[in-house]
Design brief:
alpha+beta
Length: 432
């Protein structure tokens, strides 16, 4: 049996190509092409912008997780954990947990001469800390070049118990003018009570290492010392919490919920999304607003189809009348022009997706080429934490873009197609 396409599809495709080479038909074809191009560029812009925003979010998140663990278990009262060994043993029973390390967290002042800055002090075990965070070698190399002019730069492995060494963030070291080997004073808030009043506890320490996570919030305020030294300075009998690394960082919230019932009373648990809730909420709002704004561009282009189809219906009134006299129903006439408009939307959407994905997957090549061509830097290294344009196309963004574009194009065809189905054959043929 020979398969025959519905004539509505055939006629719709023929009208899309603007059959006759008349001046009016050529103008309609031009308007149709503009609508198609507008839809394609709008879709491409959406794909590229959302991919770049995903890339920025991924880069910042990865840099943040180089100093922030996936999950933290902390003492509710801020004191030392009552059963550290039991807690470590319990959390490791979960097959999602890859590493665990104890820590002490406290706030203090760091002073050098007259310069003073509030810092977050983290007491760590240098042997276990790499199992929960990743201070990457590339970051250390950048810090080495910036601070020590090529000299070797120790990191957290330089921390030794009883030596009272300190490892600083790169930006914090710059602000205080510190280099490796310089002395620095740590001022703890839990002071000593004397007849003259409460005096702050001062401890002379030495800078033994630097780190650069690439995230300013931590590089400018985080100080790491050995966990035993932190216990002595802050008068704690042991670590105040345990940091965990899991297999899939996106499952941190569910793993935390699984671990919560197994913990002793007086312990709290939080995952990395809760520690940075404000930042991630702001990024999601920004991404959502960009999606809405750029979707309006696609909507404007899609509704250009209305004028294209209205002009096409006016031009094809004689054809419509002939089809009606040959037995075509109003529904079939409406279907012809819906096919014509929908094909413009489909071609424009597919072209936009291809262009957007082509740029998104090759943005690391395109942007440097544009910077070289225009002799400009889109991401100056001294201003932004990233020196290259990241991109991370995700199907969860691309699929809604395609669906919305196709729906807008389809909706734009409804009214002109309905008007075409209402053409009176006798009136249309009167002056032909």
């Amino acid at each position: 049996m020979k398969f025959e396409m519905p004539y509505e599809l055939v006629m719709g495709w023929r009208y899309t190509r603007a059959g006759r080479a008349t001046r009016r038909n050529g103008f309609i074809s031009f308007i149709s092409g503009v609508s198609m191009l507008g839809i394609g560029l709008g879709v491409a812009a959406l794909v590229i912008v959302l991919s770049v925003m995903n890339g920025f979010q991924k880069e910042v998140r990865d840099r943040m997780l180089s100093v922030v663990s996936h999950i933290e278990i902390v003492s509710a009262d801020g004191g030392a954990l009552e059963d550290l060994a039991g807690t470590l043993q319990q959390v490791k029973l979960n097959n999602q947990v890859l590493g665990a390390a104890p820590f002490i967290s406290a706030q203090a002042l760091l002073a050098r001469g007259e310069d003073m800055k509030g810092v977050l002090v983290r007491g760590i075990d240098p042997a276990l800390e790499p199992s929960v965070v990743d201070l990457r070698a590339g970051m250390a190399a950048q810090a080495r070049n910036s601070i020590n002019q090529g000299l070797s730069m120790p990191g957290i492995e330089a921390l030794q118990p009883g030596q009272f060494g300190v490892v600083l963030g790169l930006d914090l070291a710059r602000q205080l003018g510190l280099r490796i080997g310089d002395p620095v004073t740590l001022i703890a808030p839990n002071g000593q009570v004397t007849p003259a009043g409460v005096l702050p506890r001062l401890k002379q320490m030495q800078v033994v290492g630097l780190f650069n996570s690439g995230h300013y919030e931590y590089d400018s305020a985080l100080v790491m010392i050995h966990v035993e030294d932190a216990g002595k300075i802050f008068r704690l009998e042991g670590p105040t919490g345990v940091r965990l690394k899991i297999k899939d960082l996106h499952e941190a919230r569910s793993v935390a919920q699984q671990l919560a019932p197994t913990l002793n009373a007086g312990m709290g648990i939080r995952d990395w999304t809760q520690q940075n809730r404000t930042w991630f909420a702001a990024v999601q709002v920004e991404k959502r607003m960009m999606f809405i704004i750029l979707t309006l561009i696609v909507a404007v282009a899609a509704f250009n189809l209305v004028s294209t189809l209205v002009m096409s219906v006016t031009d094809k009134r004689a054809d419509i009348a002939i089809l009606r006299t040959l037995g075509a129903s109003p529904k079939s006439i409406m279907g012809i022009f819906m096919v014509q408009g929908s094909l413009v939307g489909v071609i424009g959407t597919l072209g936009g997706l291809l262009l957007g994905l082509l740029v998104a997957f090759n943005i690391d090549v395109i942007v440097p080429a544009l910077e070289t061509l225009f002799r400009a830097s889109f991401l100056p290294k001294d201003i932004y934490i990233l020196s290259r344009m990241p991109s991370d196309p995700q199907m969860t963004d691309i699929l809604p873009v395609a669906i919305i574009s196709l729906l807008l194009a389809f909706v734009a065809t409804l009214y002109p197609s309905w008007r075409a189905s209402q053409v009176n054959p006798a009136e249309a043929l009167r002056y032909e």
